[in-house]
Design brief:
- This protein has about 250 residues and is α/β, with parallel strands linked by helices.
- The protein has one domain (about 10-245): P-loop containing nucleotide triphosphate hydrolases (Rossmann fold), CATH 3.40.50.
- It has eight helices and nine strands.
- The strands form two sheets. The chain has a six-stranded mixed beta sheet with strand order 5-6-7-3-8-9, sandwiched between helices. Strands 2-1-4 form a three-stranded antiparallel beta sheet.
- The radius of gyration is 20 Å and the shape is globular.
- It binds adenosine-5'-triphosphate (ATP) and magnesium ion.
- Magnesium ion binds near residues 72, 73 and 178.
Length: about 250
Amino acid sequence: MPKISDDSDLRIIVRDVRKRFVLRHTHSLKESFIALLRRKKLTTTFDALHDIDFEIREGESVALLGFNGSGKSTMLKLISGVLRPDQGQVLTRGRVAGLIEVGAGFHPDLSGRENIYLNASILGMSRSEVDERFDDIVEFSEIRDFIDTEVKHYSSGMFVRLAFAVAIHCTLDIMLVDEILSVGDEPFQRKCLAKIRELQTQGKTMVVVSHDLDTVARLCDRGILIDRGRVAFDGPSAEAVAAMRASRS
Ligand SMILES: Nc1ncnc2c1ncn2[C@@H]1O[C@H](COP(=O)(O)OP(=O)(O)OP(=O)(O)O)[C@@H](O)[C@H]1O
Ligand SMILES: [Mg+2]
């Protein structure tokens, strides 16, 4: 992925971005054949994001807001490099650590312990770095008793705990957080929020997606509201939340 020059204080640049998905309407060769005979379309395209432009500076905390299906997770995947835009550019500077999809980067048949090493290496940590932080990661996740159990037997909350614990113990400059605040139980959510605040005071850059509007408004200075794949508002987070509530009330 292209990088931003070292002398800039910009961490993320999103320029004229479009992400297009192809929707298939047939699911077998037979269906495709029938559709062709009937001159029906086999696929249509759908722009999940279009004309997206914004920049995020070092140390900013930005809430990405929007209703279900508006394109928030797709945007985070573009920033993390999991997806590529069909048009435009997404540039980042520094190490990006993301909690984007629950379970991404985890292998179900491996234990929690093995997955910590696997996931941390995906996030760019060496084995010795993980060795050093292993106890802190397990401590934060509070699942020590299950650390040698295969993660396919974990509850969704346990999964998120482990994923969040690994991500925050990695050396990172940009943290992307999608919906973790809604999966963990209340004490864990509080702990995550405290950790996010600590990373903020260290000057890390954050992009947070959550449907808990009041919490993100408090956590982030800035809010970008996405409505059906377009930026509908970009400004102070409280105003972004108000704009979102006003749009469908
Ligand atoms: N791989 C894909 N193939 C086809 N369509 C997709 C794909 N990924 C996402 N989409 C579509 O793109 C749109 C935006 O999805 P996205 O997951 O970014 O929404 P979201 O804002 O994160 O929603 P939610 O609040 O429900 O998490 C949706 O209509 C979704 O169906
Ligand atoms: Mg989403």
